[in-house]
Amino acid sequence: MSDIPLIDLKADPFALFAAWMSDAGTSEPNDPNAMAVATATPEGRPSVRMLLLKGVDERGFVFYTNLESRKGRELLANPHVALLFHWKSLRRQIRIEGPVEAVSAAEADAYFASRSRMSRLGAIASDQSRPLDDRTTFEQRLKAVDEKYGDGPIPRPANWSGFRVLPEAIEFWQDRPYRLHDRAVWTRDGNAHDGNGWNVTRLYP
Predict the structure, then answer these.
(1) Does residue 52 have a known ligand-binding role?
(2) What domains lie within the chain, and their CATH numbers?
(3) Do the annotations mark residue 129 as ligand-binding?
């Protein structure tokens, strides 16, 4: 009914993710690494926002934030997350669910140092997610931080770091005509027979 290839159930999910991300890098006009990140309070109240994926390997998926922001506080209290990548140009989605762990200080330092100077200054000046009486207040704080560090090194603030999502489930979704979509989910299972700890199941559209 369609010449779109079906999702390969024999694929390693991280390799398949990398392939789809590579495709998105050539087709998406902006930020192919953009993802929706859903957290929840200890009481189960959800919240979601768009962030950028900043690292991925066989351990998991990494993003960074102010630990005192809303998402930071929610993750410290309830360390589980759901991610969603949606590439409209490709008509594809990937959903990822799992607990989070803090990245190492060395990882956070290295990524912070890779950011532009103004982004590093902004991370220090911003009380992310908290009330701001006037935009001028933030701009004045940014100027003060700029003057403080001048041309010298800008250290990573203690309240700014990253989380690694340790995937327990990765679902791939491919659009097909007439809403007869192709879906497959890889779930972690220490007893799985594929040698990599994954079970894979194709899902109804």
Answers:
(1) yes
(2) 13-112+159-203 (2.30.110.10)
(3) yes
Catalytic residue among 156, 179, 188, 202: 179
Reading phi first (left if > 0) and then psi (alpha if -120 to 50, else beta), residue 162 is in: beta
pTM: 0.93
pLDDT tens digit sequence for 73-92: 999 999 999 999 999 999 99
H/E element holding 9? none
DSSP single-letter state for residue 178: G
Query: Which amino acid, residue 111?
Result: Y
Determine what percent of the chain falls in helix, strand and coil, rounding each to the nearest 5. Answer: 30, 35, 40
Structure tokens at 107: 């990882």
Give the pLDDT mean for 162-181.
Answer: 97
51 assigned ligand-binding residue: yes
Query: Within 10 A of 10 (CB to CB), how many other CB atoms are there?
Result: 7
- Active-site residue 179, yes or no? yes
* Buried/exposed 175-200: b ≥16 CB within 10 Å, e otherwise: bbeeeebbbbbbbbeeeeeeeeebeb
